[in-house]
Specification:
165 residues; mainly alpha; transmembrane helix; transmembrane; Probable cytochrome c oxidase subunit 3; membrane
Amino acid sequence: MFAVLFGVYLYYRGADPVLFDGSQARLNPTFGVANTLILLTSSLLVVTAVRAVRQRANALAGRLIIGAMACGALFVVNKGVEYAQKISQGFGPATDQFFTYFYVMTGLHLVHVAVGIGLLWFMVTLTRRSELTEWQHSYLDGAACFWHMVDLLWIIIFPLLYLVK
C-alpha cells in the first residue's frame, strides 16, 4: 500500500514540480528531523529490549520497551503540533495536491505508530513473564518487526515529503 502511495506521489510530483516545491517549502523540516531521531531511538530501544529478553533480563527489557513507547508518544505529540501549526497557517489536506499527500502519508503512518504503541504494550506484558514459550518469543519478535517497519516507513516518508526536490 505504501509503495503504491509513494509511486503515485512521485509521479504527480514529477508532473508539477513547481507546486510541490512551493508547498514543500512551507514545511518545517525540524519536525521531520526530530521525528526521525525519535523513531530511530525507539527502534534502538526495541532491539536492545529483545536482546535483553533473550538474555533473561526481562525487567530491563520492559523498561526499554516503555522507553520506546514514550518515543512513540513523543512522535505522536510532535506530529500533532506540526499538524496544528500547518492548519493554523491555512495549509490543510485540501490546500493542494502536495498537502493532500502530506496528510494522507503522515496520517496513515500515524495510524501505524498508534498500532505499534499497542504492540509495544503487548511486548511489555510478555516481559513480565518469568519464562517465554517459543510462540511468545515469536510474538515478541513479530511486534518488534512491526515497530521497525513503522520506523522504516518514516525513513522513506521523511525525505519524500521534506527533502526530495
